[in-house]
Design brief:
The chain has six helices and six strands. By secondary structure, it is an alpha+beta fold. A hairpin with a 2-residue loop joins strand 4 and strand 5. The two termini are about 25 Å apart.
């Protein structure tokens, strides 16, 4: 058996581009902000990404990185926690607002297809005057997701 064929069989990531260092650092810093001393007593609303399928999940959890870990066990695609919001009101309300906003882009459950229409609505909502929610994640959310898609091939 040839070396390339053997490596491909032994290494599930063979031939796939590695996640760029800046993205790996950003993901790590989000996970670090969720260390046990920083886990929230109330739920937060998170944004998770499946780069290979260009889908995002909008959900709620007390610890979104732990939620990502649980979801990862049942997913063949790599999942990335992009970040999360700590809303001034309830996380459940914010999640419902997002789900309603992207209803026509729903793939299944809490997963949504990311299209130009998604980003237009997303930024229109989160940048609206008077919106009170604290974001923990990369400043350029769309740019971060785009880099993950490019890295995924």
């Amino acid at each position: 058996m040839g070396e390339a064929k053997r490596r491909k069989q032994c290494d599930p990531n063979y031939g796939k581009s590695a996640l760029p260092q800046e993205l790996a650092r950003a993901s790590s810093s989000i996970a670090l902000s969720l260390s046990p001393s920083n886990v929230f007593s109330d739920q937060v609303c998170y944004l998770m990404l499946k780069p290979e399928l260009r889908q995002v999940k909008i959900g709620i959890a007390i610890n979104p990185d732990e939620r990502r870990h649980h979801l990862q066990t049942g997913s063949s695609e790599k999942l990335y926690l992009v970040g999360f919001w700590v809303p001034a009101t309830s996380a459940k309300f914010l999640e419902q607002e997002f789900h309603s906003l992207f209803g026509d882009l729903r793939v299944r459950g809490e997963w949504f297809k990311v299209t130009p229409k998604f980003w237009e609505r997303f930024y229109s909502y989160v940048d609206a005057p008077g919106r009170r929610m604290q974001w923990h994640g990369p400043a350029d959310i769309k740019g971060f997701c785009t880099k993950l898609w490019e890295a995924a091939g």
